[in-house]
């Protein structure tokens, strides 16, 4: 089992920044990739960004490319999402997820992830 705990959400004005953290614990030694997803009220959960534990080349949704940066600290089993130039449409609950199987690199496919965190609220005011 892998447990994921997100933190760092909050209320920020448009144009501001936040950094989210996702700490993984448990059987983390064989994780393949970590991803961030978000769900706004009344909308489906959508992909934001993902990164593999042992490779570079993070992957981003077009809507956040150039504004968000995903990174990892392997020693701390933690993944970060730095969010800059935030917009009101970025308001959502942000969830991190872990892919242990690593059968393919299609980071936007939610069913490829085995574990999910409870989420952290990000609210961007205009």
Report on this structure.
0% of the residues lie in helices and 50% in strands. The chain has 126 residues and is mainly beta. The strands form two sheets. Strands 2, 4, 5, 6, 9, 10 and 11 form a seven-stranded mixed beta sheet that branches. A four-stranded antiparallel beta sheet has the order 1-3-8-7, with no helix packed on it. The termini are far apart. The protein contains no helices and eleven strands. A hairpin with a 6-residue loop joins β4 and β5 (46-52). It has strands at residues 2-7, 10-13, 18-26, 33-39, 46-52, 59-60, 68-73, 78-83, 92-99, 115-116, 120-125.
In short:
The protein is mainly β. It has no helices and eleven strands.
Secondary structure: elements and pairs:
Elements: E1 2-7, E2 10-13, E3 18-26, E4 33-39, E5 46-52, E6 59-60, E7 68-73, E8 78-83, E9 92-99, E10 115-116, E11 120-125
Parallel strand pairs: 2-11
Antiparallel strand pairs: 1-3, 3-8, 4-5, 4-9, 5-6, 7-8, 9-10, 9-11
* N-to-C SSE string, H for helix and E for strand: EEEEEEEEEEE
N- and C-termini, Cα separation: 40 Å
Percent range for helical residues? under 10%
Unreliable stretches: none
Helices, by number, come to: 0
Structure summary, number of beta strands: 11
Return the average pLDDT rounded to an integer.
94
Using only C-alpha atoms, the radius of gyration works out to 14 Å
Main sheet makeup: 7 strands, mixed
Task: Report strand %.
Answer: over 45%
Principal-axes geometry comes out as globular
